[in-house]
Amino acid sequence: MPYNPEIRAMIKLTHFDVLIIGGGLAGLSTAIHLSKQNVKVLVIEKQKYPHHKVCGEYVSNEVLPYLKQLGVNPLYHNAAEISKFKITDTFNIEIDVQLDLGGFGISRFSLDAILYDEARKNSEFIFDTVTSITYEVNDISKKSIFSVLTSANSLYTADYVVGSFGKRSNLDKSLNRTFIQKKTPWMAVKGHYTYEMPNNQVQLHNFKGGYCGLSKTETGQVNACYLSKVSAFKKYKSIKAFQKEHLSKNKHLKHFFETAVPVFEKPLTISQISFENKEPISNHIFMLGDSAGLIHPLCGNGMAMAIHSAKIFSELYLKSRNESSDSRQWLEDNYALKWNNAFQKRLKAGSVIQRILLNETSSKIGLKIASVFPQIVPSIIKKTHGSPMI
Ligand SMILES: Cc1cc2nc3c(=O)[nH]c(=O)nc-3n(C[C@H](O)[C@H](O)[C@H](O)COP(=O)(O)OP(=O)(O)OC[C@H]3O[C@@H](n4cnc5c(N)ncnc54)[C@H](O)[C@@H]3O)c2cc1C
């Protein structure tokens, strides 16, 4: 062990079986799952709960059975039950379909806080930013250990580290991940509004260079969240001007931005959203949720994938622990395999659909065909979704 006795004594107090970096959906679901099975878990999250996040806030029902198993039922918290889907474009094409599996609408402000309330029952939480992660193997005992340092200069150690720090984090740089070196053209804007629309419908409105999702949340307010190319936005002086002059070329968005009453003082924005390939394991850290890969938001499935990756990791971890086959290699191989089996095809399908929808010609042709044969829409959606997680 490379530390002096004083530090070693401290390490004893702060050693965990599993240390989770990032308490979003993936991290919180893992914390609940593992800590209910007496695993000693620490979650380090940089932001206090509750907080808003840029997200479409439509969650696929595929996660409902698993969330209920974890002791969380979003429907008890007034989540909007969604079974219909509307897609429109700037050429006045409008398609309405029934969703096979459906989903629910709930703000991240509530959902993350509900999961946190459940997770904190059996896991420990530290609100701080992780700045570095070191993995070492003892030369003599051959035992491996992670040391995790935070911006408050606190040091924690663990047998396993879960990286659930989202789509872009300071840690991606320190871990030297390749995707972080590439510039990306994507930005997103989100806000809550008072606006009349069906409770049971999620809407996707296409515009040049992006698309905007509208759906109800548990408060009855509408969440409006759009993804756009930065190049489309740059021609305008402000978000307001962009929405009025650019997004409003779609008549549904024109109606929305002219009549909806904003609830937030100003919308939340993020940029540098990367859809590049990532790895489910990096430097022996198990990457979950967006840290392992972000699906294009129009699929409305990133949250389900984050929660699903928590289930995959937790089940494998518990299996290796219960069978005392304490082999890191076994866990790494099986997590990577299961992650790829569960998500690779969805990520590819999402990328193809996004490319079609964001190209004016292919989107016009695609949506025209879909308006004549609307039954193809649910089967396309299926390609980016999984089955209920029982
Ligand atoms: C524009 C847009 C719209 C979307 N719409 C939808 C949708 O409608 N439906 C859907 O299912 N998905 C949607 N998604 C995807 C969805 O938001 C993500 O897939 C989901 O949030 C992933 O959860 P996560 O737990 O992996 O990450 P997050 O929820 O981002 O959590 C990561 C956490 O890590 C913390 N963190 C980061 N770095 C550190 C650090 N160094 N130390 C400590 N903590 C750290 C952060 O504070 C954060 O809380 C959308 C995404 C975008 C960009």
UniProtKB/TrEMBL annotation:
Q: Which InterPro entries match?
A: FAD-bd (IPR002938), FAD/NAD-bd_sf (IPR036188), Geranylgeranyl_reductase (IPR050407)
* Gene3D superfamilies given in the database record: FAD/NAD(P)-binding domain (3.50.50.60)
Mark the transmembrane ranges: none
Q: Name one GO molecular function term.
A: FAD binding
User: Which Pfam families does UniProt cross-reference here?
Assistant: FAD_binding_3
The FAD-binding domain sits at 16-310
- Specify the protein name: FAD-dependent oxidoreductase
